[in-house]
Amino acid sequence: MKYNIYLSVPNGERELFNINSWSEELKMRNIKIYPGIEIGDNVEIGDDVEIGNHTRISSRAKINSCVEIGDGAEIGSYAQVGRNTKIGDNARISSCVKIGNNAKIGNNAKISNDVIIGDNAIISYCAGIGSNAKISNDVIIGACAVIGNNAKIGNCAFISACTEIGNNVKIGNRVIIRYCAEVGACAKIGNNVEIDYDAKIGNNARIRNNALGDAK
């Protein structure tokens, strides 16, 4: 079977290339590319990378070594994906996103522009991360959770499934926010805080370090 990919050319059109002509180099670098992908100009791809069917990688993105990208995913221009990271099927990584090493981005997750995601972070399936958010190291974002624009989440935080975090929220280190909780815009949550199931934290709220928040 012949596998083809598209590479952009200077006039803005797309030129079709046959992967078979690169087969030796691809084998040497252990790069696996499947049918129907599009790769923009000046994209950097490391060794031991697997790129799934019908995936799009925009111009000047950087894919480091040992990365797996699922079927139908989109990687925006100037995005950076760290070593040993996995991007799920149909995930959307927007422009200028930086993803650390050993991270996992789930199926159908959406990461908006200029987001920073730390090492060992997990963004579960169908989660959404707003623009300019910062997700620190070892953070877990549950399925279908929504993180607002400019939110900052500290190291080792756990944001459960279906939780909603508003814009400009600051969450400290080792915070646990349980299922279906809501945190309003501009709230600040200190370190080592646990927020209970279905809790609702209002706009501009302040929760001190080592507190248990169960307001509804």
Which characteristics define this entry?
eleven-stranded parallel beta sheet, 3% helix, twelve-stranded mixed beta sheet, mainly beta, UDP N-Acetylglucosamine Acyltransferase, domain 1, 2 domains, 1 helix, 34% strand, 216 residues, elongated
How would you briefly describe this protein structure?
It contains one helix and 33 strands. The chain has one helix at residues 23-29, and strands at 4-8, 14-18, 32-33, 37-39, 44-45, 50-51, 56-57, 62-63, 68-69, 74-75, 80-81, 86-87, 92-93, 98-99, 104-105, 110-111, 116-117, 122-123, 128-129, 134-135, 140-141, 146-147, 152-153, 158-159, 164-165, 170-171, 176-177, 182-183, 188-189, 194-195, 200-201, 206-207, 212-213.
Molecular structure report:
The chain is mainly beta and 216 residues long. The chain has 2 domains: 1-96, UDP N-Acetylglucosamine Acyltransferase, domain 1; 109-216, 3 Solenoid (UDP N-Acetylglucosamine Acyltransferase, domain 1). Helices cover 3% and strands 34% of the residues. The chain has one helix spanning 23-29; strands spanning 4-8, 14-18, 32-33, 37-39, 44-45, 50-51, 56-57, 62-63, 68-69, 74-75, 80-81, 86-87, 92-93, 98-99, 104-105, 110-111, 116-117, 122-123, 128-129, 134-135, 140-141, 146-147, 152-153, 158-159, 164-165, 170-171, 176-177, 182-183, 188-189, 194-195, 200-201, 206-207, 212-213. The strands form 3 sheets. The protein has a 12-stranded mixed beta sheet with strand order 2-1-4-7-10-13-16-19-22-25-28-31, with no helix packed on it. An 11-stranded parallel beta sheet has the order 3-6-9-12-15-18-21-24-27-30-33, with no helix packed on it. A 10-stranded parallel beta sheet has the order 5-8-11-14-17-20-23-26-29-32, with no helix packed on it. A hairpin with a 5-residue loop joins strand 1 and strand 2 (14-18). The radius of gyration is 19 Å and the shape is elongated. The mean pLDDT is 89.
